[in-house]
């Protein structure tokens, strides 16, 4: 029952009277794997920590669950704080503003930097944090040969905050990407194409950031809570707001194995602790009460409308109105990876090898290369822990 009283991101292991208890927070920002072979229970925050102990029976502890040697796997009731009911659009925006400001404020001790993509979410976090630390460092990344749109917006936001002198830009080269692919698979412990693209960008920025700080704030979580995934929530297959609500919850449910997974592995591999104010328990609880019609709003179906309204006066107009881009697309990683991987593997090879050993279909020819790297590093059974970003499943 104690886990229903805990707030924040955590995994833990408790040994009590000979019983082992493993637990993971309801969002699942931190990973935990376990398994039993030859009569021994083994567990680790990463799969690679189990390679010498578990070859086949590996499991990821789901968010909001406990595993005990006495009772096995079971969920626990998450901590749900009391938050106000939404009022008018204006009142709701002001309540959201207050809750997110409080979430940033309580995470500020020790924070010296922000991962700033130039998108709406990280820009909001940066704008709030600057009020509490006027000398923040801002970290951004772009492809050196052809900078993506994120760079221009990161520079714009830094100038708006008067922090252009503290903006650090990692210019990702072709050799960075090609050299990073095996390392990305190793740290991510997955061969999912979207996650690999995202972790390479995040890893390069994290490697730069560790020279300045070991604690940062990030903007992850806002898309899942406020209707940021346009291609999902505006899909013709989505029937109504009730269906959108279901998909939004699914996006939050699978975030631990997609967006949060690449975030966690990239930053923690470089010894940098990340804080996620959008995933604060009070922000999450209030966001779930906000009508979907205020998240994707009006005839133009403006994504994250209520979030934009809450912080419009703290942002440049261009960023307040900016549409979401995938991190790797905004940075510019995707196109370069297509070119580099096609030099290593024939795109036609996917026709003769369409699936993995355990039957997962490869999304693209790039994923075939990532899978081959995966098998060099992990037992084949570990591929079952690779999860697709697919809220429609």
User: How many structural domains?
Assistant: 2
Characterize the overall form. Answer: globular
Query: What is the CATH topology assignment of the largest domain?
Result: Rossmann fold
For the biggest sheet, the summary is: 5 strands, parallel
Using the 3D structure, state the CATH architecture of the largest domain: 3-Layer(aba) Sandwich
Instruction: Give start-end ranges of low-pLDDT stretches.
Output: none
CATH class designation of the largest domain: Alpha Beta
Strand neighbour order, sheet with most strands: 10-9-8-11-12
Tally of separate helices: 16
Mean pLDDT: 90
CATH H-level name of the largest domain... which superfamily? HUPs
How far is the first residue's CA from the last residue's CA? 31 Å
- The count of β-strands is 12
- String of helices and strands: EEEEEEEHEHEHEHHEHHHHEHHHHHHH
Beta-strand level of the residues, as a percent range?
5-15%
From the alpha-carbon coordinates, what is the Rg to the nearest angstrom? 21 Å
Structural class: alpha/beta
Helix share bin: 40-55%
Task: Give a description of the structure.
- The chain is α/β, with parallel strands linked by helices and 393 residues long.
- It has 2 domains: 2-75, Glutamine Phosphoribosylpyrophosphate, subunit 1, domain 1, CATH 3.60.20.10; 89-335, Rossmann fold (3-Layer(aba) Sandwich), CATH 3.40.50.620.
- The protein has 16 helices and 12 strands.
- It has helices at residues 89-107, 120-130, 149-161, 174-188, 193-209, 222-226, 230-233, 241-254, 259-269, 281-289, 292-295, 305-311, 317-320, 327-331, 333-342, 365-377; strands at 11-16, 19-24, 33-37, 40-44, 59-60, 65-68, 72-75, 113-115, 137-143, 167-172, 215-217, 273-275.
- It has a 5-stranded parallel beta sheet with strand order 10-9-8-11-12. A 4-stranded antiparallel beta sheet has the order 1-2-6-7, with no helix packed on it.
- Strand 9 (137-143), helix 3 (149-161) and strand 10 (167-172) form a beta-alpha-beta unit.
- Helix 4 (174-188) crosses helix 5.
- It starts with 10 loop residues before the first strand and ends in a 16-residue tail after the last helix.
